[in-house]
Specification:
Radius of gyration of chain A: 22 Å
CATH architecture of the largest domain in chain A: 3-Layer(aba) Sandwich
CATH superfamily of the largest domain in chain A: Type I PLP-dependent aspartate aminotransferase-like (Major domain)
Largest interface: A-B, 73 and 73 residues
Shape of chain A: globular
Number of helices of chain A: 14
CATH class of the largest domain in chain A: Alpha Beta
Helix content of chain A: 25-40%
Strand content of chain A: 5-15%
Oligomer: homodimer
Amino acid sequence: MIYADANGSLPLLPEVRDYLATRIPSQLWGNPNAIHTLGSQIKGGMDKCREIVGDVLGANPTQVIWNSGSSESCSTVLQHVLLPMKTGKTIIYSSPIEHAAIGAALEHYKNVWDYELRYMPVSVDGLVDESWLASELDGNHHRCAMITCMAVNNETGVIQPWEKIRDLSKNHQIPFVCDTTQLIGRLPFHFNDSGLEWAMASGHKLGALPGSGFLLARDPGALKPLVWGGGQESGLRGGTQNYLGVETLAVALQTLPTKLARIPQLNAWRKNLEAGLPSGTVVIGAQLERLPGTMLIGCPGVHGQGVQIELEGQDIFVTTSAACSDNEPATSKVLRAMKIDDILGRSVIRASLPLSASESDYQALLGSLKTAYAKLNRIKAY
Amino acid sequence: MIYADANGSLPLLPEVRDYLATRIPSQLWGNPNAIHTLGSQIKGGMDKCREIVGDVLGANPTQVIWNSGSSESCSTVLQHVLLPMKTGKTIIYSSPIEHAAIGAALEHYKNVWDYELRYMPVSVDGLVDESWLASELDGNHHRCAMITCMAVNNETGVIQPWEKIRDLSKNHQIPFVCDTTQLIGRLPFHFNDSGLEWAMASGHKLGALPGSGFLLARDPGALKPLVWGGGQESGLRGGTQNYLGVETLAVALQTLPTKLARIPQLNAWRKNLEAGLPSGTVVIGAQLERLPGTMLIGCPGVHGQGVQIELEGQDIFVTTSAACSDNEPATSKVLRAMKIDDILGRSVIRASLPLSASESDYQALLGSLKTAYAKLNRIKAY
């Protein structure tokens, strides 16, 4: 099997699987906030994990807030920044290619709280145009409640100009929310050097257990919680922690530094793959800096799900664009924002290989894509 | 080992452990919302779990919303009911013995949103007085935004008059939020017969994986999400689900019906235990209906943590009151609301045995308590 949907979710890493093999049968279960020694052992374990995660990602342990994952983190940070609404600060600048964890929340704030959403333009190959934001802010910075732009787009893999947007935000003293979900665990990242107020990650995207995750906060004491409760996480996130998930996050992140060193190699293998694709195929964002394992490939006129199914028949797992369902291929919201037409938009598949991928994974993927396109190009069913 | 902290958290059930032994090494990992067959298998599994949970708890599968647990559920329901603030509806009636998942959130709403909190009185043995609420509502129902009272108190195990409060709320058409966290999985419960709008449970209290849980909603489509995202859970709770946690919830809840049948037996064993306690000890709420495994036992003048440590020395795990820390015994918020003085309040230990406990667990607990009290009664250190 070749698993090429790492951006969607990453199966448990072998190291995590091995860890769980002895952890699950153990006796170490209980409430980490209880006064007995089972509790204090579990709590001590979580604090050790905090140090490990902080160490790998350049954060202080006190800046690590365990929670259920990025969607929760995004909702937490957005409500922290946006509620209550401040007089005169009614504009939110966003990109049209945000993950729904940001996008859906912003729609809510627009509907219920009267914020006005303004979208930065995005190029046809998927790069947000921050120069537009710079001129908007000249006139409107005083009315701006927040700016948000993801670090890396999950569909295209394109790395966004988040550092420039961060600087613009800082110059105007406007809160900047950067969704780092596809940055952490995929590219080098040092939280304290990043200049970001917050960063978020989901365990299931890192090869840890689903239902785990964390929010990094530069100034944790200032954060308004989303989930209230019994004082856990220094009062910043109520509820008994998913301590098993936390332990797997630490195990998973400990494997990261070695994997990041493979990026130049992965980029080279990806370059070969893309060079070998049949004529007629299009690689979205090919000229831009992208995650080394992500390729959003289309072939105008060929049904994206047809390619996905062909590949699955060869035990290779990719996805189509987020919006596709079995019977109604649709160009995704992200691609529509990039002004990509339906002929191309409905044809895309996203292959996202993990950092641990081998050269033969890239080669096998290319081989299967060539076979699939050769077969499907004969059928132009729509 | 005798684990008597079930109300705090319940170690993985043997059935869950067995399930995980083959599940974790399997290949079935991925994003349940992805278009490929790994995703659709995982998603199908979650829907099967929805049916199982609905079946055990008397809910329709569509009423089951997977999330990270009760604290998240409480925050979700409270923000749904309380935001935005409705003109003239400024009063919230609560009990002073609520779990912090409700209590801490209400404090937040009081501070930021100008709600006024009014507390129902509670008797010295831990029963909320709903007749007080009835007379308050006569004059103030039109100003009331919400009423909340837990079904079962986690410290005392006392079953609260939630059904009467539900009826009062319905008569006045006021939203009623009932924290069911210590009811589900401990006592018989049928959601659709309960007349409740919402019910919540945490996996780690049911012997499933930590970081799992669900909210039951009578009218799910009406719910305002707390965590926004990619449309998961019919748009009601964003973020990739903790599918492994969900599977363990189903496995755990399938064991419930058999265990509930043991309640009369457990009550009898608990009666024997309490009858055998040394003179000088006090059982809080002894005359009230309680969870069959919960005993909040004090011995005025004896340090509660001393008893907890003695019991741990005999491999029996109990807790003291929530507010205790190693060096500063303090009477818990709940006991203070019950007007229990420090001499008794600082002496309590809470033993909470699971539904699977044996008669010899109750007997061994009694034996150890007698030993501990005999030893500690000689030391009246504070």
